[in-house]
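Hi W.,

Here's what went into the run:
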Amino acid sequence: MTPLLEIQQLTKSYPGFNLDAVSFAVEPGQVVGFIGSNGAGKTTIIKAILGIIFPDSGTISLFGQKLSPTSPLLSPLKQRIGVVFDSCDFPMDMSVEDVGRIGKASYDAWDKSAFDEFILSFGLERRKRIKSLSRGMGMKLSLAVALSHKADLLILDEATAGLDPLAREEIIDLLRQFMESEGKGILLSSHITSDLEKIADEIICIDQGHIVFDDAKDSICDLAGIAHCRQSDLELIKASKGYDVGELFYRSLPLSSELLVSNRFEFKEAFPHISCDRASLESYMELILKGEIL
Amino acid sequence: MKAALLADLLSVRRVLVQTVLLMVAVSFFVAFTTENLTIVGAIIAAFLPFNYVINCAAYDESNNWESYRLALPFSRRSVVLGRYVGVAIVALISEFVGIFLASLIACFGFVGSSGSGNLAAVGGSLTSWEAFLPVLILTTVVAASVILALCSLYLPLVMILGYKRGFSFIPVIIISLLCVLPSISGEDLSVLGNQVFGGFFDYLGNLALEGGFAWLGPILLLGIGITLVALLIFSLSAVLTTRVYGRREF
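Here's what came out:
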């Protein structure tokens, strides 16, 4: 099956920052979560996909079509992409109604009735101006635009940031509904790992311009574990066979240490006396990014 | 391009309406205090397109719009062309509004003078419609053309450097041109202008005469010539901006 989005060996340099040969893909039916600290390169990648910046090298393919930085194909292909950034970025003096007009003029497959339905269900007033919308309402408006033109791929950059838990849950529900149709995909960049745990299939962690891990979410949240070890336990694990020491990350705490294990069930069998909990996405990322290698 | 143009117009619609109302009030004030009606058309024709350019540029930079716009299916070329077409449309509408408004005030002048036809009450020394209208049209067209030429300079700067930085460069460039051009050519600016555009106007004049447009009269023909020169500069600016904007990163 052709990936909706495929990035190969993408590089981009700014003073003090290098995006280092990043490669990944978003397959149909897949939600790819994009995590990493501020300035890690997530937004740079998204901007490169959308043609807002130009990569130094590497290739970006959308819906099977390889694009050069100034390709005239990009604009028609963007008809099939819905984009939400971390704020509602329409001009501040426009009304909600005006945004609908721009959507209609921009997208060939614009579905006015779907947009009107979203506006109604979100409680957005048609004549209200962008500048008077709350952050949550603004994000909902952006999402309404992204979901009203039969997009195949959604690209969301911190779309749930700054929203209250209920609003975030509402947005996650909408994304789930979007994914119910066949052949759709989402690239979702977020600092809120709990949102990604709810919806993502694949998690890509990027740090200082390079991919640190690219794993299935289930292998992180269902299989991986955090073992709570004393110093003697760490030495025992290090000395034991069956574990590749180079892949084990740990973090020292005042009374014990936390050790990230890739399969907590196997670990429990091997070391039944060491308690081992399910790893959250956040703890998994923290230990890989900030932990030391055993 | 249609979507980009619509986005620009919807962005600045409210500000533009407020400006039109303000300019109507200012025009009435200026007309009656200076007793010069022809300036009304020039004020409106000059102010509205420039106001449109400034406000579009300001809205581009606010709220991350210029970046998000490129995430929509707008090509960079359509963004630039939409902006230029918008300015040209606003300039054209402003000319009509300016001429209409000045004519309306002139009518009030007739009414005020009990229908005696004393256009001089508001129209300065131009005491008949036959004399007044061509001069009104010419001043309006010249004002709009000068503004289009100025926008030809301003638009590439603002679309490449952004509103704040682009705008700060304008006075520097204009003053530099005024200082540098005469010293390079060794000629006075008016002489230089005559050298550059004189031949073009002669050519247009001959073309008009051969084409049977002499009935338009020298004043209107001059207006048409000036408009064509402004549109030529404006089109060249659009080509330049399209090329450079295509490489801008946000």
